Amino acid sequence: MNTRAITFAMVFAIAYAVAYVVSVWHNYALFTYHPALGEIGWGVEKSRDGPAMYWYGWMSTALLAAIGATVIAAILPAGFTQRLRAGATWVVTLALLLAILYMLRNYFLR
Amino acid sequence: MITTLLIIHGLLAVALLGAITHQTLAVCWPRRKAPEDHFSGRFRAVNAAAYSNAIVVLYVATMVLGAVIYPEFRVSIRSVVEELGQRAVMGAFEAKEHFVVVGMAMLAPYWYFWRTPLAEQYAGARKWLTALLAIIVWWGFLVGHIINNIRGYVA
User: Fold this and answer.
1) What ipTM goes with this model?
2) Whether A94 and B132 lie within 8 Å, measured CB to CB
3) Which of A47, B52, B142, B155 could make a disulfide contact with A52, Cβ separation 3.0–4.6 Å?
4) Residue A58 CB coordination number (10 Å)
5) Is 0.95 surpassed by the pTM of this model?
């Protein structure tokens, strides 16, 4: 099994997931979709006529961040990136799920 | 059209739920003894690795369809849920929206961990990542089901 490919997969996955949650937390949407109008605007826009959707924009921001992180991982010496343990994938996933619930706590506590 | 896509989305979610539940129970609670002639024993006695490709394909397909129908939810359904004062349900849906993205991000390492022959060094990561994906899928399925029937629940 190609361990370098697994390392890149882990770097991409962790970077994407972390960048996504940070994007949601601070609203770093790459673009805004206005579903009632079928229009797209760059960056974070307020709702025009109907709701504004940032979900696709957050995922796109995370994709760019994950690509960047993977490119950096490819440039770094192999010994550096191979310190990343497989367990980091589930630990980060669990931490992010809890962070998301914390972020949304007002929906459940009020 | 949206209704058709929603039904397909739901059917794919059912298939995904079955596959990930089989795999999770098989890896977290493996069958120890040879013949167990009861339901839970047979449920866990599957070749867990054989499910990973199907789970990845079903996860992506379910999520893509969800992303296609999401704008209709945002325009037509969310306001109804808010008018009904169902804040916890809305929060659970928001969590679903974010959980599934985190889960999707982990599909590549998940797939690698399940490649055969199974590498012993990934046994722990394989088990826990699969269990977390199962939690995400179950959360998404149950919340989607509640949202789909929200008017009936609060009537």
Assistant:
1) 0.93
2) yes
3) A47
4) 26
5) no
